[in-house]
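Hi everyone,

Forwarding the result from last night's run.
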Amino acid sequence: MAALGRRVCDWHRLVPLPWARIARQTRRGEQQRTSASLLCKLTTASNGGGLEKLSRVESRKYMQEAERGTSLTRCPREKQRTPLAAGFLEREKVITSLLDVGFSDVHVNELLRLRPSPHPQQLLDIITELLLLGLNPEPVYVALKKSPQLLKLPLMHVRKRSSYLRKLGLGEGKLKTVLLCCPQILTMHQRDIDSIVGVLKEKCLFTVQQVARILHRCPYVLQEDPGELEYKFQYAYFRMGVKHADVVRTDFLQYSITKIKQRHVFLERLGRYQTPDKKGQTQVPNPLLKDILRVSEAEFLARTACSSAEEFEVFKKLFAREEEEGSASHVPDNKSWSLDEEAEEEEEEEE
């Protein structure tokens, strides 16, 4: 009898797991019926039945019943999660695609957090178009960080704008540079681009090849006011005597008109720069444009102007005052200078 008691106690240590699971996952009525059933089987086992076999079989049976009950309760939740699961799968697909084309994990996370928040598929479509234009993953990432409005563009708009820029002479390599420096070129209004191109071709009389090179090397001119751009060219051509080829070669149009006028007039008043005559001749050798505009202010003063920073600062203040006082008498933006007018001004100065 004592041995049978020990066997019953041993059986109790075998069945707590299925018993606990059944107790948690069944209703109270089911718990009562299960308790009676287990008690009956326990009695059978105490009368010499196969305890070890019983525990294994019944444990498996009740575990299967519990799993079936659990699966029944999960079905509605899985149906509720279906839209979220679809969105998650789509996001994972986009992430995998971006990683496959060369984006790093950091870049992918940053792109997905851009504001306005892009739809994953829209993000992938825009990036694909930019990659097809010849950009590498790193420049694409920089362009989108600089101008996230690109993600709002329809694909057809991007394709049409790219085709238009190619017609202007911006091939794959040049277009890549333009998009890297000025990605806003894809979001600008078409009329604004046409206006700038019209000024370069019709007012400044640059050739098609020269216009393409200007847009390639100085893409920010597309964001300038057309009148100010025309005035900048006129200042270079008539006041400084810079020809079309030199304007293009030196990237003259990328510099602000304020910087150009300050350094040019300062050299003029120092006697180190002179406007060429009709034959392109001067009485003093003019410094190269790159030594005037492409260098830092310190280098400009030390090597080109041979002057001090204090003297240049005083000049800039006086020159700014002159510009304000003479603004009413300045040439309007819509008026073109001519060589004849420039010659008359020189004659008056000589008299």
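The mean pLDDT is 77.

Cheers,
N.
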